[in-house]
Design a protein that fits this description.
about 80 residues, alpha+beta, two-stranded antiparallel ribbon, 2 helices, about 10% strand, elongated
């Protein structure tokens, strides 16, 4: 593999989506991944053809079947 091909394979931009859930006491929901140390907000990498909102919904469903956003939940997205 040439240096250029190796750099392209490593330097591919990734797009991900995450979700912040707050309860009535303003605590934030964190999940503990089984594949790495630490805690993080629910989220993950977009699948081909998926929007950030669809990714966020899928990731939340995959992480916890008990999470149900309230009717007043707001959805916003940020891209850099």
């Amino acid at each position: 593999m040439s240096d250029s091909a190796a750099l392209q394979a490593v330097a591919r931009p990734r797009t991900a989506a995450g979700v912040l859930f707050f309860d009535e006491a303003d605590r934030v929901l964190l999940v503990r991944p089984t594949y790495k140390l630490g805690w993080e907000i629910p989220g993950g990498q977009l699948h081909p053809g998926e929007t950030p909102s669809e990714t966020a919904a899928r990731e939340v469903q995959e992480r916890s079947a008990s999470i149900r956003p309230s009717a007043g939940s707001a959805l916003t997205s940020y891209e850099r």
